[in-house]
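[Discussion] Sanity-checking designs against the backbone

I'm trying to build intuition for which residues belong where. Below is a structure token string of 125 positions. I'd appreciate it if someone posts a full sequence so I can compare it with mine line by line.
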């Protein structure tokens, strides 16, 4: 995990392995900030959608039990939204370093779209 200080708060950048482990242990809320179209085409199973265009940090769930980890396609949008969450008063926030691209490059499972019938399907590279 990499960290940087932003507004007096530590912003964490998690690796795909760290996110996968924490998600499997039910220790995080994973929020996808990509567009609905990107999410519909492929996404990390269990990730919730809060598109960047409609991102409102005040609507994020409380963090008394689980840390919030944001992700996007490459890590740029999620880092920006994490900084917006810090500016809105959140004190624990993280994002997936490298985004969904890093997730796929690390050969992690996800939900994709079957191009033959348009149905969602689990992809385990």
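Best answer:
Here's mine. Compare freely.
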């Amino acid at each position: 995990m990499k960290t940087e200080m932003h507004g007096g708060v530590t912003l964490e950048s998690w690796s795909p392995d760290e996110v996968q482990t924490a998600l499997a242990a039910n220790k995080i809320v994973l929020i996808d900030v990509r567009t609905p179209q990107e999410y519909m085409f492929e996404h990390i199973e269990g990730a919730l959608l809060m598109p960047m265009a409609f991102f409102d940090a005040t609507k994020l769930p409380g963090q008394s039990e689980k840390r919030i980890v944001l992700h996007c396609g490459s890590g740029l949008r999620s880092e920006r939204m994490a900084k917006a969450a810090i500016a809105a008063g959140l004190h624990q926030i993280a994002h997936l370093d490298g985004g969904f691209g890093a997730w796929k490059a690390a050969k992690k499972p996800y939900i994709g779209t079957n191009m033959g019938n348009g149905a969602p399907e689990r992809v385990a590279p």
